[in-house]
Amino acid sequence: MNRSRVLCAAAALIVAVAGPIAAVTPAAASPADPPPGGLPGVAVPTLAWAACTDDAAYQCAAAPVPLDYRRPALGTVTLRLRRAPSTDPAKRIGTLFLHAGGPGGSGYGWVSSYATSSPAEIREKFDIVGYDARGVQRSTPTLSCVDTPTYREQWAQTSSTPNASSFDTALRLATEFDAACQANSGELLPYVGAEYQARDLDLLRAAVGDPKITLFAESYATYVGTVYLNLFPKRTRAVVLDAGYDPQRYALDPYAYDYGQYRSTESAMFRFLDWCAATPAQCEFAAAVPGSTKDSLAARIKAIMSSLDADPIRDADGKVIVNGPTMLSELTFRLNSGTRRWMALGADLRAAEGRTGSLMYVIPDSDTRFNAANVAVECADRVYPDSVPLLRARLARAAADAPLTGPGMAYGPPAYDQTHAPACMRWPAERRSRYTGPYHGRGSAPVLVVGNTGDPDTPYQDSVTLADTLVNGHLLTWQGEGHTARRKSLCAEGHMYAYLLELTVPPAGTTCTDAPIPA
């Protein structure tokens, strides 16, 4: 969410200013192949790699890509790329692209952690390249909606417990948010959807000289990867989709998709509370009240949020900076780390009862920017029916069926993922970059889809459905908690890396049951 053109060249010129990376010339396209990016009149960027100013161990470059692929004369947007060069160019296979999730996450920022945590053979055989997608973080122009003081004021008007005015407040805040997005990023909004992101990815593939793409995508980026598989199936070497999206429900039935996320978040919260009640010696929140049950712990969380609604924390100027919904936002986000962070989360909740600790979370500028991208991209991808009664009914159902975590999210300001319906219902921009199918990826190389059974953010069933939807999809399951499997399961990582290196997918039904990697 972390928030000049020439005719298409036949081959990309790679200028390696730093590092002994050999240029690779892509195979000539056959007459039946679409040009790089898939549409005519689009220039393949020339990448002038140079030492990054923030860390000379990595190389950086800028890539101009069309604002509108169907009207390339309209101008360009600039993507910022970061590369960890292959440590053994003689063994180099090609480029491993990283596409971060969110939407709004930084692939540019992901490169260093991915490179330093990957096996030596991955670092030897691939240039690892991440980039910030169009509209995101370092890429320009950047998506912008409300500013941080205004965003904090929006959160201050909401409550973690629904009341008679909750729906009307949510609708009003969404309208204000939409207007700010249009005012600040109106020229960019129509062009940030998944189809154009996938076309960007193909231009970058051509720019680095790879005839086929090797891609690691997680969370929302799995949808972009799925779109790529359908636009350019013959250009896929290896694609890992970690924490997969069900593409048809995401794009074509957004209320149903959101509902699955509400239920997934609520279920993860209660699995944590189950553990907390069962192991009070490790959970400070439960230990504070002997004999706690998951329901009594949930009631205490509700009491904390209600207390913050009634008496929020204010800054020196008297402005609200922490209330129930802001605490809930941070609390649910931390579930993404899985069981290895549960002990710390128990301590955080105990501190929150005294109105201290890290759950007393003040919305920072980085969240404002991330959520601007998160909302704008998903509203570009999805169409909600323009019906206020339907919106009212769907939010009420989410709040009722996820009573601990749902209300504060359903009736809050536009923020993360399942909170987008009020903003997207009357989104002010055209959707020129929206993709609506097909999703089968027929003709692609084998695709590895990875899902966690306890994912609080992307329901496990989404990965199952995505693997079934893709003609060449192969499902790998990890029985674990948290969002995405990489850096959580060594077993799952082993299968992912073997596939990237050797193009071997695990046998059907493969399930990893290992304990999570320590935090």
From TrEMBL:
Residues 95-244 form the AB hydrolase-1 domain. Residues 1-23 form the signal peptide. Belongs to the peptidase S33 family. Keywords: Hydrolase, Signal. Residues 420-512 form the Peptidase S33 tripeptidyl aminopeptidase-like C-terminal domain. The keyword Ribosomal protein does not apply. This is Proteinase. InterPro entries: AB_hydrolase_1, AB_hydrolase_fold, Pept_S33_TAP-like_C, Serine_prot/Carboxylest_S33. GO terms for molecular function: hydrolase activity. It comes from Virgisporangium aliadipatigenens.
